[in-house]
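I would like you to help me understand the sequence and structure tokens below and explain how sequence relates to structure.
___
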Amino acid sequence: MSTNEVSGRSASDEAARDYRASREIPLEGLAAWREAIAEHTGWGPGMTVLDVGAGTGGFARALRAWFGVDVVAVEPDPAMRALIPTDDGVVAVPGYAHDLPVTDGGAQGAWLGSVIHHLPDLNAAAAELRRALVPGAPVLIRNTFPGRAGEDLRIRFFPETAEAVAGYPSVDEVGDAFAAHGFDRRALISLPQVSAPSLAAYAAGLRRAADGKLRALSDEQYAAGLDRLHAAARERPEEPAVSWMDLLVLD
């Protein structure tokens, strides 16, 4: 999760709260992600994981709860960072993917959730993660990638948002940038997440201002998407709001 999902500059306190309310996925909706992370890492108590571009800390909290790791939640925006739940085992610090506030080899893994398309320099980020991680530590990238986003909820109901995704770095572009710094691609998996128990609940929780893809739509496009979403909710009231994203694993 990234600051830039809220604003190209600094998020206001209200925008940060809207982001947390509308964009964070409930832990119970992330069962498939928990299983996949467990399968592809050896993360456990006593290890440190970097959550790079932590936003309001939804995944920082999840990683701590699931695996007992110590999480360094790196988030440049102060309004977003202030909402990260810094309970025992989670610390929130300012920083960037290209300038991480940790010692050389200071972490056993890194998590980048919905942030890779905001990084101005993939090469610099990969080099910095190589410095910050112990050799062989995994980097897990949760993102939407061009050509693989057909099951994204927003694209399903607001198809014009696919235009933004088309400009994101591709899987190959990300893999090549990290390969230049010694990372190998280990897995690419498409995983479901339950954003809300019903489409109606999902619609009620949307905050256009907190979502860069929705903000980019015209008022007419946004209204048409809401009409599609509400119609689907009426037709299938029991259908949960399930979206799919990719997990790219490098080490």
